[in-house]
Structures are given as structure tokens and as C-alpha cells.
Amino acid sequence: MKLSSFISSAYPETSLSPRIKKGRKDMIFSLEDLADRIGSRPDRASVEELVEEEASQIELLLSCQPDKRCALIWGYVSSLAAERSPLPLRLPARDYAGLEMAGGCIILEKGGDHVGEKMRGGRIVIEGAAGDYLGQEMTGGGIVAAGCRDYAFRQMKGGWGVVKGDAGKFLGLGNTGGRIALQGSCRERAGWMMRSGRLYVRGDAGEYLGLLMSGGEILVRGEAGRRAGWRSKGGRIAASRFGPEAVDGVTELG
Mind giving me the DSSP string for the chain? Predict the structure, then answer.
């Protein structure tokens, strides 16, 4: 008798309950292993389905150094870990930390790119500066960072973000909701194509503040650069001082 036939007769498939067969998962040894199983288009549902709930499995995957192919997967794993942890989770500075996060707390010494992207809840604290695309497309939760580069809180729909230092270009680009508080200054085109939400800048803002803005509110305690409110169709822009060529609709703070 062949070995396969012997095993089949000794352990017939019908002897396993459907619940056990459905619930069995193979051990995942690395992010690359997980990426091979998910395929070329990883999403949160696929990662959550394959990753076991045991803490050792999560810790193993978080300890891996992701390459470009595994960056999104590591981000999803970081969010699952934070949501399942009763305490704040301290993680290394990597791209996509807190991707689509729905709860819990992540602490980063410094941030990579795309930190908190599409997050729906919870909190991320970045003790140093973050990279590009901080909090992009977030709908809930909150992010605190010491500083950030370009495109922070791009297409934000909800939640809040606090930046204790300076921000780069295109802060709050295309926002339809949410609140941003910047304690430092930002570079050009903050609030570009903003439709709703609120942006507060304690320092100065670069040129073209609120470019093509159609709704929401921008408040700058310092000086707004030239052409503030240029081609805006709605919303409110107020600053203590304005550079040249500001539109007539902007308000000067007393």
C-alpha cells in the first residue's frame, strides 16, 4: 500500500470536523512568506485572515525588516498588533506604521513615510519628525508628531493631527474634514483644494495658502506668504499678516 493511501485510510478526511479544517493555519515564518501567500495586492483583510492571534507570531513579523514588497504588509501587522495590545506599542521607525489602524496606541522614536495612512481610530505618537504623507487619507483617530515633511494629512476626511514643529509643502492638500494644528510654520500651498475641515498654523505659512480652496477654515497666527487665497471659491482664510497679492476675501487678524 502506498504511504498516501495508508494515511488516507488511517486518517480519513471525514474524521476531521469542518471547524478544525477551516480553522487550521500554517505557521508564517517571515514577511516574505506572508507576501507569497497574499499575492501582489495585499490588503488588511488578507493579512488579518492569515496572521495568527498569538503574540509570538505578531512579534516575529514585526521584528522583520521589510523590503519594498513587504512594506504595506508590515504596516497592516503593526496596526493589528496595536489594536490587540492593552498597552501602548513602541515600534521601530518604518514606512506605513499604523496603516488602516482602528484602535490602540503606537509610539515611534521617529517616523518613516505614510505613517498613519488611512487610519480610522487610535493614536500614534512620533517623538521625532515624520516623513512624507503623514496621516494621508485618515478618517479618525489622532496623530502627534514633532515635525513632518511634505503632503502631511493629504486628503484627510476626519480625525486630528498635531505637529509640534514645522511642516513641509502641501499640508492638508484636498482635505474634506478633520483638524490640523501646526505649532511651527509650513511651506507653500497649505490647504490647497481644501473643501472642509480646519487648519491652524501658529507660525508662518508659505505662498499660495488656500489655493483653489472651496470650504473649511485656515487660521495663521503669523504671516501668510504671497497670493493667499488665490482662486479660492469658498471657506475662510485669516492671518495676522499677508504677503503681496492676497485676494480680497482673506481676513486680517487683529
Answer: --HHHHHHHHS-GGGS-HHHHHH------SHHHHHHHH-SS--HHHHHHHS-S-HHHHHHHHHS---GGGHHHHHHHHHHHHHH-SS-EEE---TTTTTT--SSEEEESS--SSTTTT--SSEEEEEEE--SSTTTT--SSEEEEEE--TTTTTT--SSEEEESS-B-SSTTTT-EEEEEEESS-B-S-TTTT--EEEEEESS-B-SSTTTT-EEEEEEEEEEE-TTTTTT--EEEEEEEEE-TT--TT-EE--
AA identity, residue 244: P
C-alpha triplet 111, 113, 117: angle, nearest 5°:
100
Nearest CA among 84, 103, 98, 83 for reference residue 130: 98
- Residue at grid coordinates 517616523: 111
What cell numbers appear for 48 in the block?
488579518
> Is residue 27's pLDDT more than 90?
no
Measure the CA dihedral 32/38/41/43, to 10°: -100
Which three cell numbers, joined as nine digits, stand for 118? Answer: 488611512
- The three cell numbers of residue 143 are 496623530
CA distance linking residue 178 with residue 54, whole number of Å: 35
pLDDT tens digits for range 94-141: 999 999 999 999 999 999 999 999 999 999 999 999 999 999 999 999
- Name residues whose C-beta falls within 8 Å of residue 56's C-beta, 6 or more positions apart in sequence: none
Q: What's the pTM? A: 0.88
Sign of CA dihedral 181, 185, 187, 193: positive
